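Please produce the structure of this protein holding nicotinamide-adenine-dinucleotide.
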Amino acid sequence: MSTTEPRVISHWIDGADSPSSSGRTAPVYNPATGAVQAHVALADQAEIDAAIESAQRGYQVWKTYSIAKRQTVIFAFRELLNARKRELAEIITAEHGKVVSDAMGEILRGQEVVELATGFPHLIKGAFSENASTGVDVYSLKQPLGVVGIISPFNFPAMVPMWFFPVAIAAGNAVVLKPSEKDPSAALWLAQLWKEAGLPDGVFTVLQGDKLAVDGLLHSPVVQSISFVGSTPIAQYIYETASKNGKRVQALGGAKNHMLVLPDADLDLVADQAVNAGYGAAGERCMAISVVLAVEPVADELIAKVSERIANLRIGNGAGADGVEPDMGPLITDAHRDKVASYVDIAEADGAKIVVDGRGLKIDGHEDGFFFGPTLIDDIPITSRAYTEEIFGPVLSVVRVQTFQEGLDLINSGEFGNGTAIFTNDGGAARRFQSEVEVGMIGINVPIPVPVAYHSFGGWKASLFGDAKAYGVHGFDFFTREKAITSRWLDPATHGGINLGFPQNN
Ligand code: NAD
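Below is the modeled complex.
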C-alpha cells in the first residue's frame, strides 16, 4: 500500500502555480476507479483577495496592449491549443470520466470560440457618424470592463470556460476563473498555455474553491461582471447576488431537453440520435436529450430501436484499455450516481415502465467506479419528478403523445428552455415548431444544437438568468462597455455663442 499523500491542486495567481495555505481542500476522484487521485485547494479570503488583486494588476497592463499585440497573443494561444489538445483531453477524462474522444470534442467546440476571438478587432470596433449635427461628429468606443469572474460547472471543464474567456481576454479584460472543484486541473493547464502564448501575468487567474470563493467574487467591488454556468438554483442565486452588487451578470442554469418525433421521421435516424444525445457523456450535458416525445403511432417501434442500440453500447473507463475506447464512461461522483438512481426509483414508483435499467451496473476491474448504465423509461407520468426535474445522467424517458400540438404544449409547459429538437420530414411542421417553441436553442433533425461560435449560446426561462448569452455577438457586448462621444472641433468662423436650451441637432 502506498503511503504517498495525494497531491494538492493549487491556484494560478500572478502567472504561476500558487499553493494554498487555507488548510481547506476537497477530494478529486478518478470516477472510473472511484479512487481519490488528488485534493483541490479551497480558497480562503486571503487567497480570494490575492487572486483578484493580481487580476487587477494584470488588467492595468493588458489594457495598454494594442489590438495588434493582443491579437498576436490570442493567435499563439490558438496554435498551442490546437497542437496540444490531446494532453488536455486526457486531463479531462482523468477527472471527469468522459471518454477521451468526447473530451476532444468539447475542446474543439471551445477552440471555435478562441478562433472567433482571433477576429475580435472587427467585433469591438465602435461606430462613427460624421457630421451628426452641423460640425459635430458622434462616435462610440467599446472598452473592457476590467476584472471579470467566470464560474464553471463540472461537466465541461474546458469548453464552458472557453465560452467566455477568449472573448473576455480579447476584449481587454482580466479573468478570474473559478472552476468546478470536481475537475479543477483543466483550468490550470489552460492557464499554463496562456503563459506560453505570452499573456501578461494576472490576466488569466485560476481561483480554486467552493461557495466561499464564489461569494468572494460576487461581493468584490473590483469584479465587474460574472459569467456563471451550473444548476438552476445556484444560477438564480448568482444572478440575484451579483445584480444586487451592481455587476453585469449572465447565469446559465439547468435543462430538461425534449426531442419531438413526428410520425413521418426516419426512425433509424431518430434512434441513433436519441442514443447519441441521451447517453453521450453519460447524459452529463446541459444539451443532452432527456425526454423523447413520440407522436403516436411511433413509440413502440422507436423504443425497440433504441433498446437494440443500447444493448451494443460499451461502458467503461473513458481513458480506454488496450487502445479501445468505450462509448460511455462513469458519472462524476458516487453521490451523483445515487441521485440519478433515485430518479429511476421515483419514475418506477410513479408507474413508469423501466425498459432498460442501468441501476447497479458494475464494470469488471472497475468495481468502485461511479458507473451507471444507459436507462430507458417508457410511459413516464408527466407529473413525476423524474419527468419534471433535471436528472443529468444517462436516462432517456419516453412520453407518448397523440399530436404535434400536445408535444409542443408539453415542452412549453416546462420550467426550463435550454435546448430542444424536432425530428420530421415535414418542413412546415419544423417551421411552426421553431416559431412557437419557448426554448433558446432548437435542432431540426439535429439532436444537440449547440450554436457555432459566431452565433450565441443560451437558453430561455430557468436555463438563463440575465440578458446576454455566451459567446458570439452577445459575448462581445457582455465583455465591453460602450462610450458615446459627441465632439465638435470648432471652426474659427462658427462659435455658436450662449444657448441654455437642451442641445439640438441641426
Ligand atoms: P453546480 O451548480 O453544482 O456548480 C456550478 C458552480 O457553482 C461550481 O463552480 C460550484 O463550485 C459552484 N457552486 C456550487 N454550489 C454553490 C453554492 N451553493 N454557492 C455558490 N457557488 C456554488 O453545477 P454542476 O453540478 O457543477 O454542473 C451541472 C449543472 O450545470 C447542471 O444543472 C447542468 O444543466 C448545468 N449546465 C448548464 C449549462 C448551460 O449552458 N445552461 C452548461 C453546462 C452545465
